[in-house]
Amino acid sequence: MDLRANFDQGLSCPIPISDYPNVLLAHGGGGKLMHQLIEKMFVSSFNNSLLESRHDGAVLNCNGVKLAFTTDSYVVHPLFFPGGDIGTLAINGTVNDLAMCGARPLYLSAGFILEEGLPMETLWRVVQSLQQAAAAAGVQIVTGDTKVVDKGKGDGMFINTAGVGIIEHNLEIAPARVQRGDVLLLNGDLGRHGIAIMAVREGLEFESTIASDCVPLADLVLQLLAAGIEIHCLRDLTRGGLASALNEIAEAAQVHINIDERAVPVHEDVRGACEMLGFDPLYVANEGKLAAFIAKHDAERALAIMQAHPLGAEAQIVGAVTSGMAGLVTMQSLIGTHRILDMLSGEQLPRIC
Amino acid sequence: MKFIDEYRDAQAAQRFASLLARVTTRPWTIMEVCGGQTHAIVKFGVDELLPKEITLVHGPGCPVCVTPLELIDKAIAIASRPEVIFCSFGDMLRVPGSAKDLLAVKAGGGDVRIVYSPLDALKIARNAPNKQIVFFAVGFETTAPANAMSVYQAQQQGIKNFSLLVSHVLVPPAMEAILSSPHNRVQGFLAAGHVCTVMGFTEYEPIAQKYHVPIVVTGFEPVDILQGVYLCIKQLEEGRAEVENQYARAVRRQGNEPAQQIIREVFQIQPRKWRGVGEIPQSGLGLRDKYLEHDAELRFGVAGHTVEESSECISGLILQGLKKPHECPAFGTRCTPEHPFGATMVSSEGACAAYYRYRRIKT
Predict the structure, then answer these.
(1) Which residues contact A8 (CB under 8 A, 6 or more apart)?
(2) CATH number of B5-58+172-238: 1.10.10.10, 2.130.10.10, 3.30.210.10, 3.40.50.11750?
(3) Model pTM score
(4) Does residue B103 belong to the interface with chain A, where contact is any CB pair within 8 Å?
(5) What is the tens place of the pLDDT at every residue in B27-41?
(6) A206, B33, B135, B336: which has the fewest Cβ within 10 Å?
């Protein structure tokens, strides 16, 4: 669709073209611009009740069976990084989106967009890694697609995966269910994936042993469900990190969320890298972390279940949904004062000094 | 984490807050010079712990904020050339020029890269001999040594396809410009710790004496800042005007002499334009004659280009401590980090961006 022609005819494009005549990287960065793009261009155009729920996936009701359905594309560079590669990401990312709907992930598709000249050896390594990650997450890749583009028109390899999972409980797990009194849990420390990628990005190489936290979270979620925990909402903390996820939920549920900076676990090596780059770990991407909004009466029990699970050993209660301005996220800082925890504006960029 | 946790400690912060409450008897206005300090003050809510008599005003020490519009335009013109790989610190990419920013150049196909050090840009130059590599050398005395080193090494190693677009500024002339303004309200300074790590603080001693203002070299963590404010207020209350060093874990009186040496070898002091403020004599650095072959302005013929600033943005007044961000009618409404009018809203260390990000509801 030619947006400018559309604009000229009076059907105004919801994203002011005068401000953004071209797509910027920040439109995919997980922050405000991406949020605007989704809200104003996609949700308003594709407008339907399933999309309206602004969840990590759609929950479909098919003849009495509840299914979760989601898709995600993977364009990570470099293809291999400490702690994982594009293959593990493509499985775990989609598995985690299904898990955030409270589903048991079952079947995935894999679509490959390959750049002419990609070493076959590289493709083989990624395919092996996809297979191993799928086995570890208990899912099968049951359909796929392959396209090759001219050299220079892709970055080696892009992968899209879509996934279907089954929902075997009667809870409604969605942003809209978040309510005052809910307790906010994290399953562990923040920032490892984003910093691991940053450390191997060209021009920014710094010596680090930080590995991505890329893992499938479905088992952890299924254990919470099996124990009958009253889960209101789950969100995996990918691009934009904890801060962006909480802002999206606060806005969608029209609630006020307050967190305590002292309770948020961040490993020392990640903190050090963040200090050096001028990043805030609360905005750095994760691939194996979730925020769980749990009914207050179940919070301690949920914490115990998480802490007993290998992917939740460092789980913490980090905040709560409180009475306050709807749509706002605030944080009690390390020195005891309060401030707004805003959504990221643009990409996080390493600062000068 | 050592050198971080003990300076973000709630009890230590509270201790200095009580000490301050005890020694403060009347209103005082103090300027923190550095944008990194402004950011920490607003992020951690340090000013909420101060007695109401104390006003902190935010200084000009944000390199992104004070880089003049015309230099951003020059960067955009150079980065748009097909033979150029334009390297920059990350936060310069979002600063709006007259028509667009460097991120838009990148979106339009320009090769714009974020690097963490000018020496990484030099490495790119070595590996891409058919390209022109330009590094955007902005910043205060803090970034000058590494930038100087990159040109020095390029010269030594005969790397001819490397040049710097220089916009270096110096802190002491800006402090003098503020103090000699008839509208000045600043009675004491927290000097920028990182700048003094390089330069030491002997050059502040004549300023303290001439204008009778206390100057406390201060770090960047909340407890550093509270202690810096305390030392400054104590001097004011006692009628003293000395240079004191709160940031002794990083700063020595003489500074880092090898770093100063390489700055002197490559750069010379010259007048510089500051965004929102105008030209300040002897307030910046430019390449010495023997290194001019690495000057990107000359190499790409953009030296003569000048532009005027938008008149609506009050960032000049903010950078001089004459206004606070929320006193601007456009703040948070027409001017936001997504649609910044001026540089103080763009840089994460700019006062307007810090206010917007952490406290737009309260103001």
Answers:
(1) none
(2) 3.40.50.11750
(3) 0.84
(4) yes
(5) 999 999 999 999 899
(6) A206
